[in-house]
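Assess this one:
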Amino acid sequence: MADPYSTLGVPRTASEKDIKSAYRTLAKELHPDRNTGNPNATERFSDATRAYDLLSDKAKRAQYDRGEIDMEGNPTHPFAGGGGGFGSRGQPRGQGGYRPEDFQRGGAEDVDLSDLFEGLFGGGRTSGAGFGGARSGQQPPPRKGADIGYRLRVPFVDAAALKDQRITLSDGKTIDLKLPKGVESGTQMRLKGKGEQGAGGAGDGLVTIEIDKHHVYRREGDDVRFDLPITLDEAVNGGKVRVPTVDGPVMMTIKPGTDGGTVLRLKGKGFSRKSGGRGDQLVTLEIQLPEDLGPLAERLGGWKDESDPRAKLGV
């Protein structure tokens, strides 16, 4: 390793903030995860880390500046002083004329640089070397295989009723998926270990749900909308009619004199909610006249409705 100041590209008068900033910049550029197969970058990253270790330690930096230790942190004159004796302040020294505490990491502020690598390299210390202790030649841990994306089309009725769905994976195997509550188009499901194989294990499968449209049902939040045609006779006289739902047909009562456009509610016949329970099916009644109006006109016998259904509209 060259002079630690030169390694980090800072002057000897650099502040602690300048040293930290310089190291962060080099670490971004030289980190092994960004330079796979580039041993020169790995070596430079290791040198930068050792330089930062030395200069970020106030005690070691002062020793280096005084020429007492070299760039690796080793004493420059290991046998000076004849073994024993006292230091300049009368303190007992160990072998080589240096106090043992001279070579401890005392007085330096431990700097957590995990925020630098969080997100940049998939989180924290992925190189396995550790910051402040990287060594040349160490390799990052083996990576998992890549995730595999799947798109699953789900019939409208199946999504509303949360029916299990079968999906074929890239290896040809099939599995049955349980749809989650509150499922909607764009919902993603993660299948652990169903991705590509890698040295560190298999990746995951990511299934994106796409709910098909229906020819008569419409989704409105957690509710299902449905337009039900009824005859003029059913609207006037009332009665029980059969109504399709996502769970199968049910019987619904129409009161005598029901207007077209009336909305009736079938409880719990909608989509599941994330919070529990289900939405409703909202049935809009549409009065449908017979194709052959002759018998109806004959039965009315010239009768005319004198009411004004548009009076409330102000027209």
In short: The CA atoms of residues 235 and 258 lie 5 Å apart. The longest helix spans residues 39-56. Residues 81-111, 122-134 have pLDDT under 50 and may be disordered. The helical segments are 4-8, 16-30, 39-56, 58-65, 114-117, 156-161, 232-237, 294-300.
